[in-house]
Design a protein that fits this description.
Layout lengths: L10 E10 L10 E23 L2 E13 L9 E4 L2 E5 L4 E2 L6 E11 L1
Antiparallel strand pairs: 1-2, 1-4, 2-3, 3-7, 4-5, 5-7, 6-7
């Protein structure tokens, strides 16, 4: 991917991390806290697919986010974009290993 210029990063995002339980394993409701707030990112939709699960339509979208480098972001975290949430699917990519920009590969599940 070509280098993104600052003006293309027009989407404001937050990076969140889980602070407590996973209801699937512990029965405790999930709780999230913000690690980084108000980061500017370029969001690109890479792929979309749709499935019907238990008579409900579910769309899976894959996104690539490009943003300035921020340390400590892990695949166990998520991205909040407005009222939407993207799961980080892989370790962040430190573009050219220069600690100046990074990419996040994310998945979004949409029910409807």
């Amino acid at each position: 991917m070509a280098t993104i210029v600052t003006g293309q990063r027009r989407h404001k995002i937050d990076i969140e991390y889980r602070t407590s339980g996973n209801p699937e394993t512990s029965g405790v409701a999930e709780s999230w806290a913000t690690l980084y707030r108000g980061l500017w990112a370029f969001i690109e939709v890479l792929r979309g697919e749709e499935k019907v699960i238990a008579m409900q339509t579910q769309a899976q979208l894959t996104h690539r986010l490009n943003l300035r480098f921020h340390p400590g972001i892990k695949p166990s975290m998520r991205v909040k974009f407005g009222g939407r949430y993207f799961n980080i699917m892989a370790p962040p990519i430190n573009i050219d290993e220069r600690n100046s920009e990074m990419e996040l590969m994310c998945g979004e599940v949409v029910y409807g």
